[in-house]
Design a protein that fits this description.
single chain, 163 residues, alpha+beta, three-stranded antiparallel β-sheet, two-stranded antiparallel ribbon, 4 helices, 9 strands, 16% strand
Length: 163
Amino acid sequence: MSIFASDILDPLGMNDTAFVISPPAALRGGQRASARAQTGRLRRNRWSSSNPTRNPSPVGAGFIRPAPDYLTFIRMLLRGGSLDGVRMLRPDTVALMGQNQIGTIEAGVMKSTVPAASNDVDFFPGISLKWGFGHMINMQAVPDGRSAGSLTWGGFQHLLPIA
């Protein structure tokens, strides 16, 4: 059992989150990822128990998770680091995650590190973006209604559907 599982995932009940998809999760089916075909168009791939199920991301990234587990983690952050009686982070730590940690540097356009699976992304063209310890932060209000200081997860997502 990993420290992630024993100290974070299990206490929050995030049973289907891992760096490697468990055989039961793989057998539930429906786990899909996109890859770019030689034509340049995205095509859907299906993971199965016979395909590699490890997400080959750098240390500190690469969790594969279903949407409900991801939402559990977000709920914990929204509640100041605690969820259902489980304290994961101090409120001041959660606050630091959403504060500008890069000074005057702009986060800018997110360049894809996996062009076969995703394009470059400019979430809010013309809006100042910064990085906190956990999130991308839009520093100005956005015309679609997002307030200045709103947080965005800017990572590449492998969200598994609900079984």
